[in-house]
Design a protein that fits this description.
This protein has two domains: about 35 residues; about 35 residues, no CATH class. Helix content is about 85%, strand content about 0%.
Length: about 70
C-alpha cells in the first residue's frame, strides 16, 4: 500500500477525527504562541468567516443575512 492509498483510506474512514485533531492542534499551538484571548478572537473570526463563506457558496443573499442579524 502506498502513501496516497493510506491517506485516502484514513481520510475516508476517519475524516471527523482527522479534522478534530488538526483543529485541536492548531488551537493549542496558537494558545502557546499568542495567548488564549488572542487565539479565541482568531477562532471566532474563522467561524464567522466560515458561515459567511457557506452562505455565499449556497448562493444565499448576503443582505438578507445582515437584515436578519441587525433587525
Amino acid at each position: 500500500m502506498d502513501w496516497n492509498e493510506l491517506i485516502n483510506e484514513i481520510w475516508g474512514k476517519h475524516r471527523g477525527k482527522v479534522v478534530g485533531i488538526l483543529v485541536g492542534l492548531t488551537f493549542g499551538l496558537l494558545t502557546v504562541l499568542v495567548g488564549f484571548w488572542r487565539t479565541l478572537f482568531i477562532s471566532i473570526c474563522i467561524i464567522i468567516g466560515y458561515f459567511i463563506g457557506k452562505r455565499i457558496d449556497n448562493h444565499e443573499n448576503f443582505r438578507d443575512l445582515l437584515d436578519r442579524i441587525f433587525k
